Amino acid sequence: MHIIKVPCSSANIGPGFDVIGLALSMYLELHITTKPTEPPTPTNPLNCTITYTGVGAENIDLDPSANLLTRTALYVLRCHNQRSFPPGTNVHIHNPIPLGRGLGSSGAAVVAGVTLANVCGGLNLPKARLLDFALMVERHPDNVAAALYGGFVGTYLNELNADDMARVEVPLAEVLPQPAGGEDTGLTPPIPPMDIGHFRRFDWSKELKAVAIIPDFEVSTAKARGVLPLQYTRKDMIFNLQRLALLTTVLSDSPPNPDLIYSAMQDKIHQPYRSTLIPGLTEILQSVTPSSHKGLCGICLSGAGPTILALATENFDKIAETIVGRFKQEGITCEWKVLEPAEDGTTVVEVPDS
Ligand SMILES: Nc1ncnc2c1ncn2[C@@H]1O[C@H](COP(=O)(O)OP(=O)(O)OP(=O)(O)O)[C@@H](O)[C@H]1O
Ligand SMILES: N[C@@H](CCO)C(=O)O
C-alpha cells in the first residue's frame, strides 16, 4: 500500500496575492492499494474505486471519472499513454481540509492527484515536473507549490514562448474532460510545457504559529476571483509591493516584530474587494492588532476566504475567540485551529499491505 500525504495551505498572507503560499499542518491523506489480478469490468473501466472519509463527504463525487483528484491523476496518466489506473486500484481519501474555505483544499486535491498518477503509473516524475502538471489544472501557483514542496514559499510563473503559452491556455475542460472516463478518442491530452512555474522557500520564525478561524460557509475561489477588478491604480500596486518586499523577511525574524509584521501583511488588491462576500471581514482585519491582542503579529484573509489567518506567538484562544465572536454577530459560526508550517510538503511512503 502507498500512503500519500498533502498539507493544506494558506495563500497570499496579505499582500502576496497569487505569489505567497504557506503549507500548514492539516493533511489530505490517500491510501492506495491495487489488486493486479482483478480484471476491468464494464462498470469500472478505469479500474478505480474511491472511498472517502472526512469533511464534506456529501459533496465529493466518488465516481473516478468525475472526482477532481482522480480526474487530475487520469490527465497525468493519459499524458503518459496510460488510459486507466492499474487493475483493482482502490483510493481511500481521508480529507480533514474544509472545502471552499481558503485553506487550499483544491490545491491539495490537485497535488494529490498528480502524485497519485506518479505512484500508480510508475512515472518517477520529479516534483518540478509534478508542479507543471498541477499548474495545468490549478492555474495560480501559490497553493500548489506550498502543498507540493512544503513550508513558506514565494512562487512565480515563467513567461513562456508563444507555443508553450498556447498549451497552458488550453481550456480547463480539455485538460480535465468531464467525464474523464468518457469515449476514448485516442487523442493525447495537452502535455504541459516544462518549467511553467518556480518557487523559492523562505525561513519561518520558530515562534510564529497560524490560528485559522474557519467560518461555516463556503466561498468558491472562482467567485472570490470574480469580484476582483481587472486593473489597479499605481498607488495600490505600490502599497502592496512595499509590504511584500518586507513580508518574507519579517516572517523569518526571531524573535518576531509584531508591529512590522502587522504592517507588512496589509493589502489593497484583494481583501477589500472580497469583503463584499465575507460579512465582518474589514472590521476583523482592522480591529485585531498587536495593541489589542498580546501575541498577535499579523492578520489576513486565508487564500480566497472566508477563513481568517492570524499569525501569533501566544494567546491563541483569546485571538480566536474575538474573531469567532465578531463572526457570531453576523450570524456565522466558526471553528478554529492552531496550525504550524508543514515543512515536508507532499510525502509518499510505501507500507506492507495489512
Ligand atoms: N479532496 C477532494 N476531493 C475532491 N474534490 C475536492 C477535494 N478537495 C476540494 N475539492 C474540490 O475543490 C472545491 C473547493 O475549491 P476552491 O478552490 O473553491 O476552494 P479551496 O481550495 O478550499 O480554497 P482556496 O483556493 O481559497 O484556498 C470543492 O468544492 C471541491 O469541488
Ligand atoms: N491566490 C489565490 C488563492 C486561492 O486559491 C486567490 O487568492 O484567489
Automatic annotation (TrEMBL):
<dbReference type="GO" id="GO:0009088">
    <property type="term" value="P:threonine biosynthetic process"/>
</dbReference>
<keyword id="KW-0752">Steroid biosynthesis</keyword>
<protein>
    <recommendedName>
        <fullName>Homoserine kinase</fullName>
        <ecNumber>2.7.1.39</ecNumber>
    </recommendedName>
</protein>
<dbReference type="InterPro" id="IPR006204">
    <property type="entry name" value="GHMP_kinase_N_dom"/>
</dbReference>
<keyword id="KW-0547">Nucleotide-binding</keyword>
<dbReference type="InterPro" id="IPR014721">
    <property type="entry name" value="Ribsml_uS5_D2-typ_fold_subgr"/>
</dbReference>
<keyword id="KW-0443">Lipid metabolism</keyword>
<keyword id="KW-0067">ATP-binding</keyword>
<dbReference type="InterPro" id="IPR006203">
    <property type="entry name" value="GHMP_knse_ATP-bd_CS"/>
</dbReference>
<keyword id="KW-0808">Transferase</keyword>
<dbReference type="GO" id="GO:0016126">
    <property type="term" value="P:sterol biosynthetic process"/>
</dbReference>
<keyword id="KW-1207">Sterol metabolism</keyword>
<comment type="pathway">
    <text>Amino-acid biosynthesis; L-threonine biosynthesis; L-threonine from L-aspartate: step 4/5.</text>
</comment>
<keyword id="KW-0418">Kinase</keyword>
<keyword id="KW-0753">Steroid metabolism</keyword>
<dbReference type="Pfam" id="PF00288">
    <property type="entry name" value="GHMP_kinases_N"/>
</dbReference>
<comment type="similarity">
    <text>Belongs to the GHMP kinase family. Homoserine kinase subfamily.</text>
</comment>
<keyword id="KW-0756">Sterol biosynthesis</keyword>
<dbReference type="InterPro" id="IPR020568">
    <property type="entry name" value="Ribosomal_Su5_D2-typ_SF"/>
</dbReference>
<feature type="domain" description="GHMP kinase N-terminal">
    <location>
        <begin position="67"/>
        <end position="151"/>
    </location>
</feature>
<keyword id="KW-0028">Amino-acid biosynthesis</keyword>
<dbReference type="GO" id="GO:0005524">
    <property type="term" value="F:ATP binding"/>
</dbReference>
<dbReference type="GO" id="GO:0004413">
    <property type="term" value="F:homoserine kinase activity"/>
</dbReference>
<keyword id="KW-0444">Lipid biosynthesis</keyword>
<comment type="function">
    <text>Commits homoserine to the threonine biosynthesis pathway by catalyzing its O-phosphorylation.</text>
</comment>
<dbReference type="InterPro" id="IPR036554">
    <property type="entry name" value="GHMP_kinase_C_sf"/>
</dbReference>
<keyword id="KW-0791">Threonine biosynthesis</keyword>
<dbReference type="InterPro" id="IPR000870">
    <property type="entry name" value="Homoserine_kinase"/>
</dbReference>
